[in-house]
Design brief:
Blueprint: H1 10-26, E1 40-47, H2 54-73, E2 81-88, H3 93-106, E3 111-113, H4 118-131, E4 135-137, E5 152-154, H5 159-172, E6 178-184, H6 188-200, E7 204-211, H7 219-226, E8 232-234, H8 239-251, E9 258-260, H9 267-273, E10 281-285, H10 295-308, H11 314-330, H12 336-344, E11 349-351, E12 354-356, E13 368-374, E14 377-384
Parallel strand pairs: 1-2, 1-3, 3-4, 4-5, 6-7, 6-8, 8-9, 9-10
Antiparallel strand pairs: 10-13, 11-12, 13-14
Helix pairs in contact: 1-4, 2-11, 3-4, 5-6, 8-9, 11-12
InterPro entries: BCAA_transport, Leu-bd, Leu_Ile_Val-bd, Peripla_BP_I
Family: Belongs to the leucine-binding protein family.
Pfam family, one: Peripla_BP_6
Length: about 375
């Protein structure tokens, strides 16, 4: 998942991403990286725990911490306890880069889990690469983010994957021959989904409108849409705006299906939309508590509910798996460079969100679900493919 938090950060994120690519190509990284200590293995958390998308980061922090607690209770890694250094990047790309520098140079962590979003991840990867420390983002989905990045790993599917899924689903399942596309134009995540949707959808897009992150009044655009003939509204964006769009659309009498990506995930979406109006909603998720799950996933569900007294989101589950992927790669490793090499070799790792295998670019294609929501509750989930 990825969000452009403020327009002033765009250049910073772009520079960071370009710098990251440069670091890898120039071979300037410290290949050995940070040494794994004798009695502990330090893992850094770099999550959006406050700020614009704190709902994602706090969920991931909880899932990651649960994994650490369980691993330590079971004896740790090679008898070593995991020591967590937890930092809040405040949902800011520049802060994500600073946090990474602190984690790799001051705390000397051997691996980093987070950030949750693509913009923050792009900003963070250069400093992790320079120090020779692997960074795994549970949920950064921007296409091409890992290209040429030897130390960056992604734990979920990419934006283009979601756009294709939505196009197929609205065509085959919702029988939508005409749609409205309403995209967050301040978000590369949303624009990536929209681009893939346009390319894959064979029906007619009768209106292609945009909004900007931070907007709260969508009445004008929705009024324009209401006068058109369409079968569904596609909203590539985040819960912060998507929930308000649902609320205002339903309040205006627009009752057509509203479909989105994994940015709809979480209780915050329902809070913005209100349960009364959050019906006939469809969105993508990498994890579901409403379908039959594996024994491993059930154990995670039970443990998460017991620890936090709430339902885990897909972000919590992805972060939980990301910590376990790092722990698996840390077995026998003497330094962070070896952890990176072991991560790259990961094949068919069975986690609570399904199997993970990293390709040559360190991306993975995960099982995806299309969730059906009515009255603010997910009523069904089905496995979907692009």
């Amino acid at each position: 998942m990825k969000k452009k938090f403020a327009l002033s950060f765009v250049a910073l994120a772009s520079v960071a991403l370009l710098a990251a690519c440069g670091e890898v190509k120039s071979g300037a990284s410290n290949a050995a990286g940070n040494t794994v200590e004798e009695k502990t293995i330090k893992i850094g958390f770099n999550f959006e725990e406050t700020g614009a998308v704190a709902a994602y980061g706090t969920s991931e922090q909880k899932g990651a911490q649960l994994a650490v607690d369980e691993i330590n209770a079971a004896g740790g890694i090679d008898g070593k306890q995991i020591e967590v250094v937890d930092k809040d990047n405040k949902s800011e790309t520049a802060e994500a880069a600073s946090v990474t520098t602190n984690l790799v140079t001051q705390s000397k962590v051997s691996a980093i889990v987070g950030p949750a979003t693509s913009g923050a991840t792009a900003a963070a990867v250069a400093n992790a690469t320079k120090a020779g420390v692997p960074l795994i983002s549970p949920s950064a989905t921007q296409d091409g983010l890992t290209k040429g990045q030897d130390y960056l790993f992604i734990g979920t599917f990419q934006d283009s994957f979601q756009g294709k899924i939505i196009a197929n689903y609205v065509t085959d399942k919702l029988q939508a021959k005409k749609v409205v596309l309403y995209t967050d134009n301040a978000s590369d995540y949303a624009k990536g989904i929209a681009k893939a949707f346009r390319e894959a959808y064979k029906g007619e897009i009768v209106a292609d409108e945009t909004f900007v992150a931070g907007d709260t009044d969508f009445q004008a655009a929705l009024t324009k849409m209401k006068g058109k003939d369409f079968d569904a509204i596609i909203v590539p964006g985040y819960y912060t705006e998507a929930g308000k769009i649902v609320n205002q659309a339903r309040g205006m009498g627009i009752d057509k299906p509203i479909v989105g990506g994994d940015g709809f995930n979480g209780e915050e979406f329902v809070q913005q939309a209100t349960a009364e109006k959050a019906s006939n909603i469809y969105f993508i998720s990498g994890f579901s508590t409403t379908v039959e799950v594996s024994a491993k996933a059930k154990a995670f569900l039970d443990a998460y509910r017991a620890k936090y007294n709430e339902e885990p989101s897909t972000f919590a589950a992805l972060a939980y798996d990301s910590v376990h992927l790092v722990a698996n790669a840390a077995k026998g490793a003497k330094n962070s460079g070896e952890i990176k090499d072991n991560l790259a070799k990961t094949k068919d790792f069975e986690g609570v969100t399904g199997q993970t295998s990293f390709d040559a670019d360190h991306n993975t294609v995960k099982t995806a679900y299309m969730m059906t929501m009515n009255n603010g509750k997910v009523e069904a989930a089905e496995v979907v493919k692009p």
